[in-house]
Write a structure and sequence with these properties.
Three copies of one chain form a homotrimer. Chain A has six helices and 18 strands. With 356 residues, the first copy, chain A, is an alpha+beta fold. Chain A folds into two domains: 114 residues, Rieske [2Fe-2S] iron-sulphur domain (Rieske Iron-sulfur Protein, 3-layer Sandwich); 216 residues, Naphthalene 1,2-dioxygenase Alpha Subunit, Chain A, domain 1, CATH 3.90.380. In chain A, strand 15 and strand 16 form a beta hairpin. The longest helix of chain A is centred in the C-terminal third of the chain and has 31 residues. Chains in contact: A-B, A-C, B-C. Chains A, B, C: This is Oxidoreductase subunit alpha. Chains A, B, C: InterPro entries: Cholesterol_7-desaturase, Rieske_2Fe-2S, Rieske_2Fe-2S_sf, VanA_C_cat. Chains A, B, C: It comes from Virgisporangium aliadipatigenens. Chains A, B, C: One of its GO terms (molecular function) is 2 iron, 2 sulfur cluster binding.
Chain lengths: 356, 356, 356
């Protein structure tokens, strides 16, 4: 069975920025229940979602100004997690405090640090600037996945599956046929997988959004920043159109397809997805089409990965996967993830030398 | 994680009296499946709900006169649990018998003894005479709770939660604000928690049932007879109305709110509730209102406690609750329950020194 | 608790023949997920339902000619389980192969061998020739049972339960009242249980299908070929009608009621049922009636056995069944099954000396 270990001491995406507002939002990350909200000054806050008194979920409680009043007995917490009122008495126990999580809003995503708070460095959060940059338009969603984290990492690092699982949407025969190149930056801890297709069919996802009717050159440049952020730099252009010598590329269409892969429990995952584009940026119909199409593609992945999780749950121990060239990206990701697991606080290398 | 040990050698409420009749009733108490019915002479009977032959539930079988004929192969049991007929042969195996539980009907409740039958003493059953006494009218119900027994004990021993969980029904701010006094009778094994509120708002539950429009004096005198019977002696009167020197109290309104807390499995509980009153005893509209209101309040508790059970199921070991003054009643109850657990047949003290 | 061990190195019915066709059929047998289909030349094929690459179920994949193309990344398997194509490269790893199961179609049933393929001998498959023989008409079905295999074996070997569980359909009081004779052929490994009823009531199942209006002689001759095939040779005739001295029996009605009992998981079972008859063979209304009636009877069994499985799941260890004369067939079956379990590859005798 695949390992289900968590990698702590890392930043994970807990929410799209727009999900965190006045209401209390419950979200479990790496098995830790968190309540998220935004204070009156706009700052996102994340507190442990369990009252110190009798465990009641704060997310089921009342927000009063920037405080949370527990819905069971009224224990009241400020934005730092400190308890500032208890029922029936004036003295507040010194230890009455729920843990506060380091939370950072960046590039339209809300990141939370799971691990030792002292080790949280916001500068370590990988960036995806297109998601809220001028000149780009983004559509997004979040699908619940009833499968372990590693299955989605495998899925995204090997896009040959587009040909089989996403035919008619984003897959064409050439994706599976075209070899990839894989590079690992062990210092920066990034996995790069590149597939450059020349003179190939344009899948409906891009044909309808860009208006291209003929054959295309299609680039899929993956950049995976484990454990959470996955960037797919997609370039679509009519066949033969090349970037200019100065690096600008005005005659191509660019999409930045971003996934944030956040473990919820050991066998479930938050599958955040975003599609940013630099074309037709004011065209609501293109936005609607891309949102609907990408959600369909994500749900195809969800159905497949949920099936894999059921296979794993039912199988006896000892199954050995067989890997081929298309898996070099996924295997590299596992190697990096395993190294990160062995460094994290309170965790050694995973028993089977894997991280997913 | 909270302990989930059962306390055997005790009486537990298995049913409201009206639930036990001609039909076979299945009910699990402390993990033991029991079939209940009432014989032609009106006596309630409780037998183990599992045929000795191939385990078929007797509660899914046929009642013929005062006997049960197993619905699978026809093994027939009398009211004592003795097998009196088997299919295909005249000889009945000597050991063919299902256990019969000591069962006592008292105060409109059907109590069952879980433990060594020889130790069952009906005199040890705590009383709640108002439930079927002249001059009183009672409404009642039973809600299934998907949470462990101890969470409901905690809930009922600390009524400060009325302010937060039952606002608009039975809670007002003064409940949480008013200090309690707690007394434990270690010999009789009763926990008393008293809250006496003077000149406070009248919650809708009492305003509409009593007709009082102004401010009230409100008493909440809890009497918990562990493990099962919880009595809340509630007194409501216009502010300043006192009992007479002779102890009579003709100008106040009295409600006897009774809960029977019966573990079903280690993580589910039968939440029996009853509200007896000495006012408007013939007023069907008041009965309807109190039944509906109290059921709503119980369902608010059920939702909260089910949420706590889910929190406990998902959390790693080691959570330490933080207790304050309002918890003295609940902590006293735990202490008594733990003492009872250590005395019961076949059970030592619970590993974490708790009983809930 | 009853043992839930599997008996490997045996043939099991995986499907009715008509279920296996052009489409890919997923079926789990003894915990092993299998994909079944029929090649263009009509041969049934069974392969392990898990791609060697990343575990995707082949049953959720595409069939192309006689091959299966994995729906996730396109690994392609021929009817022998050999991988004949992988994406993105020409070299196919030597070990790329999914296990192929020995599969035999016989008497309108598709049998699969679970165990060491080298030990699979089609001659060992027990026969039920009436199921597709001239002069016979068969109705059939398959019901999922959420209960362990042994509970259905017990059920079918002791038909006294017809009186209680199937009254009004196939049961009459005389079934439970009439003694049985049990014989075990330890060499051929067959359990025989015979019940010969004379001058008894005709249950609706036979009255309406045969047209008999009076009393009958009714034979129930069971032949159980463990682990999977159960034959009930049923003979119905007006009271006093005997077979001719030469063994022919032209004035009686014969039904061959067949069950195939195939473990799906340790606590679920495929309950295949078939009713073949030598009367009214062209009467569609009789076929419809027998199909509907037998399905009702099977669903009554399913409800009862599912209840037993829930009893077993909830009970503490140590329950001892009590057996009487009616159980001699079931106990004999358990003894044979236990002997078979101890011989099978990789399995010793079951810990509790039982097999069911």
């Amino acid at each position: 069975m695949m390992s289900t270990g968590f990698i702590r001491d890392q930043w994970y995406v807990a929410a799209h920025a727009h999900e965190v507002g006045e209401d209390l939002l419950a979200r479990t990350v790496l098995g830790e229940p968190i309540v998220l909200y935004r204070t009156a000054d706009g700052t996102p806050v994340g507190l442990a979602d369990r009252c110190v008194h009798r465990r009641f979920p704060l997310s089921l409680s009342q927000r009063v100004d920037d405080r949370i009043v527990c819905g069971y007995h009224g224990f009241t917490y400020d934005r730092t997690g400190a308890c500032v009122a208890v029922p029936g008495q004036r003295r507040i126990p010194r230890t009455a405090r729920v843990p506060a999580y380091p939370v950072v809003e960046r590039d339209s995503l809300v990141w939370v640090w799971i691990g030792e708070p002292d080790r949280a460095d916001p500068a370590a959060i990988p960036r995806a600037p297109w998601l809220d940059a001028p000149g780009w338009t983004t559509v997004r969603g979040l699908e619940p996945l009833a499968a372990r984290y590693g299955l989605l990492v495998d899925n995204l690092l090997d896009l040959s599956h587009e040909t089989y699982l996403h035919a008619g949407y984003i897959g064409t025969p050439e994706v599976a046929e075209t070899p990839i190149t894989t590079e690992v930056d062990d210092d920066a801890r990034v996995v790069h997988v590149r597939r450059r297709m020349k003179d190939v069919a344009c899948p409906p996802f891009y044909a309808r959004s860009t208006g291209i009717t003929g054959r295309i050159d299609r680039w899929q440049d993956i950049e995976f920043h484990p454990p959470c952020l996955y960037l797919l730099h997609a370039r679509i252009a009519p066949t033969g159109v090349e970037p200019a010598p100065d690096g600008t590329d005005p005659h191509a269409f660019h999409a930045e397809i971003v996934y944030a892969i956040t473990p919820e429990t050991q066998t479930s995952t938050h599958d955040f997805w975003l599609v940013a584009r630099d074309f037709a940026t004011d065209d609501a119909e293109v936005s609607r089409f891309l949102a609907e199409s990408n959600r369909t593609v994500v749900l195809q992945d969800v159905a497949a990965l949920n099936a894999l999780e059921r296979v794993i749950a039912a199988e006896p121990p000892g199954f050995q996967e067989l890997s081929i060239n298309i898996d070099t990206g996924g295997l590299a990701a596992r190697r990096l993830l395993n190294a990160m697991a062995s460094e994290a606080s309170g965790a050694g290398p995973l028993p089977d030398g894997r991280s997913g």
